[in-house]
């Protein structure tokens, strides 16, 4: 089936769940490792690839996360952090993405070489802003707290993020949700909300609906990263629909982590048909070896999504974006102005409902 049947050129192409440090170019890893005299398991892109990119499935979530170590190994200074941030936005532009939210844990990025987390936040912001100017892609930053660290370390990580609060749009909680429940971080997210930041939380991927309930009730999440196990609890589905809480779906990543056995078994279609607000994202393109178009044109149809449902997911992304209504409208108008097709448009705030311009 042709690609354009799954991607609507009149709608912005948006990625809301992409880890900056899971999107570092392998070529950049090789180049910086050579400059810095660092040892990698491969000395060129092809020999490094098997150690980073998942073929088939990883050995669970932590094996998937463990592949990050070769991507973050080259973050020896703030210039490297600035470079990979810039290249993230540059790569988004090459994919044809109009708007992207890039998330990262400054503690995780700086841990290997002892970089100061607040400095990483500033360097990443510098790289993203420069790339925005050069590419025209709209990009915003989401700061991650890594739940696998102790709560005190997460407070220090949050301090670093809040020191540059003006560069952030939201705070996220990521890591092993099964072993580190959301409730431990309630105070952290109270601080984030008090600072005026949006909240999105990884939940309902490895752990069940109780993880999603905790994210919304205890942390105040307005969006859920993954959330695919929400379907196991009809009351939760009803709650998410009533509150318009969106699910950031990552089909290929779920297959690679092993939380879903095969594309044909992914619940993306059921989620959209249930009326849940949900979109499609990449998660960690460097590790999954994909881009956003792959999720729409390969993963989505393999998961049973019709062109109408993928178009709905594309429209939902605009509804879910951490942007003001005016910014959403401008993003939509810009895309429609650049499209030859203009027979209908999507109004922000209508969960992808199509309206005739007349």
Q: Could you characterize what this model shows?
A:
The protein is an alpha/beta fold and 358 residues long. The chain has a single domain (11-336), classed as TIM Barrel, CATH 3.20.20. 47% of the residues lie in helices and 14% in strands. It is built from 17 helices and 10 strands. It has helices at 26-36, 45-52, 61-66, 68-72, 78-94, 106-111, 117-135, 151-162, 186-194, 209-218, 234-243, 251-257, 268-273, 285-288, 292-302, 307-320, 325-337, and strands spanning 14-19, 99-104, 138-146, 168-174, 198-203, 223-226, 246-249, 278-280, 345-346, 354-355. The strands form 2 sheets. It has an 8-stranded parallel beta sheet with strand order 1-2-3-4-5-6-7-8. The chain has a two-stranded antiparallel ribbon with strand order 9-10. α9 links the parallel β4 (168-174) and β5. α5 packs parallel to α7 and α7 crosses α8 (151-162). The longest helix has 19 residues, at 117-135. The chain is globular, with a radius of gyration of 19 Å.
CATH topology: TIM Barrel
Residue runs with pLDDT of under 50 for 5 or more positions: 341-358
Number of strands: 10
Our measurement of the CA-to-CA distance between the termini, rounded to an integer number of angstroms, reads 31 Å
Which class best fits the helix and strand makeup? alpha/beta
* CATH homologous superfamily grouping: Metal-dependent hydrolases
Which CATH architecture would you pick? Alpha-Beta Barrel
How is the biggest beta sheet arranged? Answer: 8 strands, parallel
What is the percentage of strand-forming residues? Answer: 5-15%
Number of helices: 17
